[in-house]
TrEMBL record:
This is ATP-binding protein. Keywords: GTP-binding, Hydrolase, Nucleotide-binding. Belongs to the GPN-loop GTPase family. The keyword Membrane does not apply. InterPro entries: Gliding_Motility_GTPase, Gpn, P-loop_NTPase.
Length: 249
C-alpha cells in the first residue's frame, strides 16, 4: 500500500495521474493493450542502483527522509529570539510566552525601544526544511539568567547556535557567547537590525564582544524570513566546517 508522508516534507518527484499509473508502479509500457482473462502478475523492475533491498526508501516515487539538525537560537532578553524562530518556522511555532508582571520590574529589561509585554519562560520551538536532505529543528532559549539552568539540556545534541544580539544592548549577549565558547559549540553572532539599522557598526561590535575572526558576525532582520534563512545557513556552514576539521584531526 502507499506510504503516508508528513505534510511538511517535499513532495515525491512523481505527481498527479502519472504517479498512480501502471507505468509508474510496474514499469508497464505506455499505450500497451490491457490484458484480458487470466494474466501473469506484473513484473516489478529492479530497484535503482544505490538502494538496498528491503530498505524503506526502496521503490519508485520514494525518497529518504531529511536529516534532522538541531540548532539553538540564543541571546539576551528581548533581542528577538522568539521572532526569529516564528519568522522562518514552517509549522506553527511552539512558544512558552507569559505576560510580564510588576514582579519583573528591575529584573527583566527589554530595552527602551521595545514594546515587549511577554517573556519566554521555557523555550521556543520551530522547524524548517532546507531541502530534501536537510531539516532544521530550532530551539529558542530563554534570555533571563534565572532560566540559565535549562541551557545545558537545550544544547544537548545541537550542532550549532545563532546568538542574537541587540546592538544597543551588547552587555546582554555576553553570557550566551561565554556559554558556547565554554561548551565548544560552533556559533554565529547575528545582530538584529531593529528598525533596519544598527546602533554601532559590525567591526565595533566584534571588538566590543571580543570574539575571534573565526566567529562569523552577520547582520539580519529577525522579522524577515529570507534574512533569518541566510543567518541560519551561516550557522550550518560553521557547523560543517567544524565537523570537517574534527574528522581530519
Amino acid at each position: 500500500m502507499d506510504s503516508v508522508r508528513s505534510p511538511e516534507w517535499p513532495p515525491a518527484p512523481l505527481s498527479g495521474l502519472s504517479a498512480n499509473s501502471a507505468a509508474a508502479r510496474y514499469g508497464t509500457p505506455a499505450g500497451a493493450t490491457p490484458a484480458t482473462g487470466r494474466a501473469a502478475p506484473p513484473t516489478t523492475p529492479a530497484p535503482p542502483a544505490g538502494l538496498r533491498h528491503g530498505t524503506p526508501n526502496a521503490g519508485p516515487g520514494r525518497s529518504a527522509p531529511p536529516i534532522p539538525v538541531k540548532i539553538l537560537v540564543a541571546g539576551g532578553f528581548g533581542v528577538g529570539k522568539t521572532t526569529t524562530v516564528g519568522a522562518i518556522s514552517e509549522i506553527a511555532p511552539l512558544t512558552t510566552e507569559a505576560e510580564m508582571t510588576s514582579a519583573g520590574i528591575g529584573i527583566d529589561d527589554p530595552g527602551a525601544r521595545s514594546g515587549k509585554t511577554t517573556t519566554t519562560v521555557a523555550m521556543d520551538f520551530g522547524s524548517v526544511t532546507i531541502d530534501r536532505s536537510l531539516k532544521l529543528y530550532l530551539f529558542g532559549t530563554p534570555g533571563q539568567n534565572r532560566f540559565g539552568f535549562m541551557w545545558d539540556d537545550l544544547a544537548r545534541g545541537a550542532l550549532g547556535a545563532l546568538v542574537v544580539v541587540d546592538s544597543s544592548r551588547l552587555d546582554d549577549c555576553y553570557p550566551a557567547i561565554d556559554f558556547f565558547e565554554r561548551a565548544g559549540l560552533p556559533f554565529v553572532v547575528g545582530v538584529n537590525a531593529f528598525d533596519g539599522r544598527l546602533a554601532v557598526d559590525l567591526p565595533s561590535i566584534r571588538w566590543a564582544l571580543a570574539i575571534s575572526d573565526q566567529v562569523p558576525l552577520v547582520q539580519f532582520d529577525a522579522r524577515d524570513r529570507l534574512s533569518v534563512r541566510d543567518a541560519l545557513l551561516v550557522v550550518l556552514d560553521r557547523a560543517l566546517d567544524r565537523a570537517t576539521r574534527d574528522r581530519r584531526d
